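User: Can you help me understand a structure? I only have the sequence.
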Amino acid sequence: MPFTDDVLDRAVDVVGRVARAALIPWGGAEACVDAYETAIRAVADAQLSVARAVDVEPVRAVIASCAGLTRDIGATHLSGMRWLLDV
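Assistant: Let's start by predicting it. Here is the structure, written out as C-alpha cells:
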C-alpha cells in the first residue's frame, strides 16, 4: 500500500532526525553506535572468558550460549539503530 509505505518512511525519517539531534552532545549518532558495538563485543568476550575458565561442561555451555545470545541481540539492535539513524 503506497500510502502506508510513504507514512512509514516519513515517520522513520523524522524519528531518525530527532534521534541524531539528541545524540549530538555525546559525539553524534555514529560515535554512540560505535560505543554500543564496542560494549556489546566486550560483554560477549567477557562471557566467553568466563566460559573458558569454568571446568563444568554444562555450565560452560550455558555461559557460552549466553555469550552468543548477547552477540546476536546486540547485532540486531545495531542493525536497527543503523537503519533508523542512517549511519
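Now, to help you interpret it: The chain has a mean pLDDT of 91. The longest helix spans residues 57-85. Let me know which part you'd like to focus on.
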